Amino acid sequence: MDKKQVNRDIFRMVLPIVIENVLQMLAGLVTTAMIGRLLADDIAAQGIGNRINNTFWALFKGVGIGATVIVAMRYGQQKFHMCRRTVEQVYLTALPLAFCFVAFTLLFPEKVIALFTSDPVLVETARGYMRIVIFAVPFMALSSINAAAYNGHGNTKTPMYIAFLMNGINIVLGFILIFGPGPFPRLGLIGAGISTAVSWAVGGLTGLFLLYARGGYFGNEVHGFKFFSLDAGLLKEVYKTGIPAACENVFWQLSAIVLSNVVLEYGSAYFAAYNMGLQAEMICEMPGIGFTTAATSLTAQAIGMGDDALYRLYFKQMRKFSFFTGLFASIALFTFAGGFMKVLTDKAEIQQIGQVYVFIMGFAQIPQDLAKVYNGTIRSAGYRNVPMIISFIGIWCVRVPIALVCGKLLHLDVTFIWMAIALDQIVRILINMTVFHKKKVLEVVADGRAAKAAS
Q1: What confidence tier does 366 reach under pLDDT thresholds 50, 70, 90?
Q2: Helix, strand, or coil here: 37?
């Protein structure tokens, strides 16, 4: 396969993922901007509720990564019936866990919110929002598993079309329920929670329907096993990759809870600015996000095919492209830091605080985007625990300790917390590159073929 074909393969996967994530972030941006017209406590309460949901989502997204790797390898080996079997095993084990999370959060909301704040007004506001938005969690899990099925087959367009649908619903329904135009009731923050839950439900169920519908992947991939029969060997294979990936995602989410607790001590305005700054950063990060899935799926397919040249070329091209997407994101954040915050809120104090966060995050974009390619390639090469360990070091040995010392102990300006977040990303890419070369990850296909020949 020549370089032009490889580039087409990469962009055929990456561009729909970028568009899908841009749509999700734009919907989040619009919702945040609508909430940003409400009270500071409403903004902070939404941030708490979303942080809790995102922690659960991170877990299932990691499981989805494990499923993506196995589906992509089976697809490369042309064992198509095992693609469906793999995904169905994940449905069977992950969805019940999602409903357990919902039940726990509904039964003990105060204990969950206590991880963030003890302010009685904020606790009450966040509890009302969380009791609604938590119902999105099972559909987040379903969507993550559906995405694994599509991405493992090399199809990123269908998730993009689903994103069009669900984010359109989120924006339109959110506007109606938050502000209550005409005969509709003005529900404020509760309306945002309802629109979020409904949009995730539509997205998850639509993706499931398309998989099993006539002409869908699962309509043609008949495996002959009963749906409710567990395959311990297959599940072990999926979760050996999925659990470290889930832990990696959860590390980030748990650190965000700790950082949220630290930032809330500065006041609701600082926490609101932090959450809005995250939205601005994530919009600029979107061009690079697709490389996580592309690096995992395409290199796994090349490994399944036993094609060393293709495997190497996929990695090298994605590394080059991710550098330029990171550069683009950095320039955008440096240049338009103030403009992003003005779009998100009309509160001058929040704008000023968030602008500093957005500017500092500009330094983290190139390392962050490069790490996506390194992580995906390392994971598909069989080093399942390495990205998790690197993430742990960056987050819990750099980001969190510095933030706690600067915020809780020394009571320094909040800027030092923003700097700790950026430093974490720089440390991680340096470790990634060191481990990548030390373990000779680019040699994995050639080594595998040599081992087979020797046996």
Answers
A1: very high
A2: coil
